[in-house]
Amino acid sequence: MNYYRLFFLLLFLNGAIAGFAQPGTTIDRKALVERHTIKINKADTLASLSVGNGGFAFTVDVTGLQSFPNAYEKGVPLGTESEWGWHAFPNVNNYQFKDALKTYHLNGRDVPYAVEWGGGPEANRKAANYFRQNVHRLQLGNIGLEILKKDGTLATLADIQNIHQELNLWTGAIKSYFTIEKVPVTVFTYGHQKQDAIAVKINSPLLQQKRLHIRIRLPYPTGNWADMGDNWNNDDKHHSAIIAKKNNSAIIEHSLDTTTYYLSALWKGKATFIQKQAHYYLLQPAAAGSFECSIRFDQQRNTIPPPTFSATEQNSALRWQQFWTSGGAIDFSGSTDPRAAELERRIVLSQYLTKIQCAGDYPPQETGLTYNSWFGKPHMEMHWWHGIHFALWGRPELLEKSLSWYAHNSAGARAIAQRQGYKGVRWQKMTDNEGRESPSSVGAFLIWQQPHFIYFAELCYRSRPGNELLNKYKDLVFATADFMASFAVYDSVKHRYILGKGVIPAQERFKPEQTFNPTYELVYWHWALSTAQKWRERLHLPRDKQWDKVLQGLSPLPKQGDKYLFTESATDSYTNPEFRTDHPSVFGAWGMLPYTSLMDKQTMRHTFDWIWNNWTWRKTWGWDFPMTAMTATRLGLPGKAIDALLMNIQTNTYLPNGHNYQDGRLTIYLPGNGGLLAAIAMMCAGYDQATTPLPGIPKNGQWKVKVEGLRKMP
């Protein structure tokens, strides 16, 4: 009996047991993916579908193109965005970034932070607003159908009838069928996986009647917090023109201040390409039953034609099949828990969405490449939720692509640290491709993005151990740790190191001037400094003495009775209603992070039980539910882990297209999708300290689980 148990324990520790599946059982991945083909049968503005490649995405309505952008602007907008498309309004007032800096007296010295200034002096406020707004991500263009009805008027969304649209996730194909005045139209839409291009094929008698055209419109950026890609005003503030045209191709140049980019169109068959009005172009097919075209967006002029429809179709099918047959898979077929199918749907669709929206060379924004939120800028504390799941799902290369951002922008991070009187690099919070710091009265004081790089590097090392990877990332790991050690303030009275004052925790409900020792951040500091020391040891370097001083003297986790305080400074953590909202980030201390010597299991269990029963869950965010599931899993509560992932709360809504809906402002929220994937990977594949297989799956006989290719979480 002991040998039997030992045998299966060894199998588990080596990742050989695939859930409750029989040994040798493999997942039919094509069947798994295709049973979650998205099917749309009405004009639902929250059910827009997208194609993309990780650095470029194109979102369509029920016509298979972006025919009705104004109708969709309050749903999931019909955006076209890329990683390279950025713009800034001219700085005609010569604002200086230094005027966005505000000095705070913290821990006995003055420290400057880039903040929004609120009602402060006008000069400071305007400077901060300018640098917060600029640069912003561009909506590159709107490509839709212009359909003429029998009476010569343009069809509206209400005229689109008999809708049947499908997104085949296995091939990346969107097939859209509908009728206009009982005349059928079928549109096939693909996104190229190597070029920033889309391709469409249209079949319809309307082509024969010359009543169906392809429209290209170029919007102007709103400069607002959000940009839906449908601002048709300000024609005089930008310039566009057809700069090249042949029988079956054309190139448009679009210039906005100092930003210029290009659209290249290629079509099969006869057509005319004209400019109808400013920034408004029409591709008018000749009479035929079918029409194919491709349109590519380029940062620089590219005289090579875009790939044909056929080439794009083949490229999409091949690359998506490669994606789905690589890395991990989870199959819940045969489960009797009625929630299993919905959870599996969310998992499959989240893989598709994060691949097209978040798998590029730069950290993504929270709304990906669909529409702007926070001016289109990435939030670096969210990079954990956007990225770690790629490594846990056996696709670490998709995480590692975006890590080059840190090396490229380390000089800016070092400058922030030096300006504030710290060593090492202080990683930006709200930023852009070039690492520019965006003023933020919250973001300037967040610190939980700081250890992320060490976590990312460690995940990469676990996937590819060896000196090559250690040497690739060691300098940034050590510089990250140097800041962390110097940020901790030594209290000579209490003989311990303190984080803060001058901190806003991941739970953004606390005033920075008053806040110190948030529980999650204390544990993250301890884990990351310990891991950085491991990197030194792997490289046969001596341990860093200052890091060890901080590790040995770091404040214990703050407690009140039998529960953890959310921050040591918030002694009213459990009585102030405001502190029962936003992210319950205390869970991150033993959920996102593994068990450390700072942690007491019983105290965390009491904390978990209280938050589960008393939190204002309607005032949370999409990644709070995966984080809760992670903590439940580590506490040995798999039932609660599943309950958390499927909690019936608005911010835990997953739309028909798989997007995590928050509210009318954030109709999509990709940290929720990434968090779901990270949590379920950990629940199925386990974590380093797990002692049972499938630690986050209930053992009640209602779950049948097959798992392949997942990797353990630290």
From TrEMBL:
Residues 1-21 form the signal peptide. The keyword Signal applies. One of its GO terms (biological process) is carbohydrate metabolic process. InterPro entries: 6-hairpin_glycosidase_sf, 6hp_glycosidase-like_sf. Gene3D superfamilies: 1.50.10.10. It comes from the Bacteria. Keywords: Signal. This is Glycoside hydrolase family 65. The lineage of its organism: Bacteria, Pseudomonadati, Bacteroidota, Chitinophagia, Chitinophagales.
